[in-house]
Amino acid sequence: MRHQLVRLHRWFGVATALFLFVAGLTGAIIAWDHELDAALNPSFFKARTAGPALSGLELARRVEAADARIQVTYLPLTAESGHTLQMMVLPRTNPATREPYSLDFNQVAVDPATGEIQGRREWGAFSLARINLIPFIYKLHYTLHLPVTGGIDVGVWLMGIVGMVWLLDSVIALCLSFPSVKAWRKSFAFRFGRGGHALTFDLHRSGGVWIWGLLTIVAMTSVSMNLAAPVVRPIVSLFSTLTPNPVNNPEILRAPQPGDGVLSREQVVQLAEEAGKTQNIKMPPGGLYYAEFMHAYGVGFYETGNDHGEIGLGNPWMYWDAATGKLLGMQIPGKGTAGDIFMQVQFPLHSGRILGVGGRILISAVGIAVAVLSATGLLIWLKKLNARRRSAQKTQSAPVTRDAGRTPARPHREIAPE
């Protein structure tokens, strides 16, 4: 049985090592995406003009009025003091061609005092330019920048499958790390004095044992983050009812009707303020998202600058039909069924934000550890593979001897690598 587990661990590890190496390093970086992005691109984050800031709603109106090609899809409702207000935008339809306008950006940084655009960029572009570097790394972390093919986000699916293999392999690795009750201490030890292969082996085995629980959490949440709708939610729903909302259950959306209008942003914010009071949400509406393809608005409740959710289970979100103003669903952290709360906790766990700054530091360290475990695993495999090949070559090149009166000795069979 142990021999079969060794083979599984070897091939699971080889198959996922490169993906996990990239995911580990990028995860360690994007735990601090906002801070690093601001440090690299001060002109995109720091407002040029001192003075009272306009509301996010007024800034969005001015941006759209200045450029008829664009439609603001996401915006914070207030800007951080001294910072630009960053909006996500999409192209409108060109009435002459009935095709979307061609844009080379999807995010703008707006001076909150004047409404002028300070900077533009395509968030997630395949580019190592300084303005694009952190968004590039963020998207690399969960998609590898692979394309969407036939409506399937190949990168998201691939990294989700890698997460499932990693989760299974973590269980196998723990079993292999403790070959006997008497030798359990060795599984926690590091032979720093030996160096070389001995230390490489200990970094891989003992390093994985020390942080096994954290690795398992990151593996599980990586599956939940990438494959929530097709895999995780159906499994969770077997054990607990899940409350639908437009994000996880588009079937509750009403098909757009001819002549449907779209509520103004101001109307939706007013609906959100009233609903927030009804639900006893302490934070004000902090950000507004319009999803034209869903014909719905989403409003997040958070203090200025806390769009990610700095600690706990994240921010409340509520959703409305863009034409009728009907409440379509909500996600209130800590409320709902056991299944709802399980799904709510996935991003805070994966990002470390459930524990605030300390959790982000921890998740950065785990990301580096994942990269080290992947690299040492490959080194161990390559060393053993080379050893098996040398052994096979020696066996094949050994002279064939014949004893008088006996049939010729058969040469040894080639030893196939495991």
Automatic annotation (TrEMBL):
Taxonomy, superkingdom: Bacteria
Keyword Transmembrane: yes
Record-linked Pfam families: PepSY_TM
Segments for region (Disordered): 392-418
Sorted UniProt keywords: Membrane, Transmembrane, Transmembrane helix
Transmembrane residue ranges: 12-32, 154-178, 209-229, 361-382
PANTHER family in UniProt: BLR4505 PROTEIN, IRON-REGULATED INNER MEMBRANE PROTEIN-RELATED
Annotated protein name in UniProt: Peptidase
Species whose genome carries this gene: Paraburkholderia rhynchosiae
